[in-house]
Amino acid sequence: MIVITAPTGNIGHQVLDHVLAGDQPVRVIVRDPDKLTADIRDRVEVVQGSHGDPQIVARAFDGADALFWLLPTDHRAADVEEGYLGFTRPAAEAMRSQRVKHVVDVSALGRHTAYARRAGHVTASLAMDDLIAGTGVAFRALTMPSFMDNLLRQARVIKEQGLFFDALSPDLAVPIVATRDIAAVAARLLLDTAWTGQEEVPVLGPGDLSNNDLAAVISEVLGTPVRYQQIPGQAFRGQLTGHGMSDAMAQGLLDMMIAKDNGLDNGIARTPQHAIDTPTTFRQWCADTLKPAVQAA
Q: What is the C-alpha separation between 82 and 102, in angstroms, rounded?
């Protein structure tokens, strides 16, 4: 039995699609089953509720050979680390009590850098990994840079203003990955559980790019000029709180961006295998995903 959390989210629904192509039974934890298509509801066992609920996870993890764990970020949490650990603690206990065999989660790069202890959401993600690892389960933490798909949030701004915004320095080259590649890596681990022990699996994408590099590629794919504009740190934080994020979570994101700007995501030596595991180039993603989104915005 493979258990999928967050099966209607951007990454989770793609993981679910992959594992349903296999021959193993699948169970999902979902708050609103109506968000699943009728075809998928017919092919999975549905446990309705939150995967932060002790009773729900105890029931859902019963008989689980493999679990895909994806934390839904609470943007109004009063404390970043507790927002991650408080939600995950019931699941960690259920992993023990239900003897879950394998867990794959979505986490973050940076553990072995000097910035990991003051990187906001990344620091909390790594603490979540430690909590899961402490259960003794066979565990693979998929450690991520930023997602290409995050740019979809700015599709309308790209269309109307020819701009996109972030807090990173414009010429800092960092890894960036498509969520479809993340899902493919996760699904491979869930479907073939011959692995044991506990490891981090860096999911880097095929190459490092700066935001100025991204702007150049977007401009070429869209056929219209697009520029990157860096947001000063406190303005970045103010935008987040202005959209309803708690002060703590907004500061956590700012701390994460400062750490990334100082090299948080650049601590893993890239190998040819990273391009094999995560082959989607930014240009390909722009053509397949961003351009239709901008046109429809």
A: 24
Domain with 136 in it: 2-146+177-205
> Over the stretch 253-293, which tens digit does the pLDDT of each residue have?
999 999 999 999 999 988 999 999 999 999 999 999 999 99
CA distance 163 to 13: 29
Q: Can you point out the beta strands (E) in 61-113?
A: 66-69, 102-108
Within a domain: 264: no
CATH of the domain at 25: 3.40.50.720
Q: What is the pTM of this model?
A: 0.94
Q: In degrees to the nearest 10, what's the CA dihedral of 24, 142, 204, 231?
A: 120
**How many domains are contained in the chain?**
1
Q: Cβ(77)–Cβ(246) under 8 Å?
A: yes
Q: How many angstroms separate the CA atoms of 271 and 249, rounded? A: 34
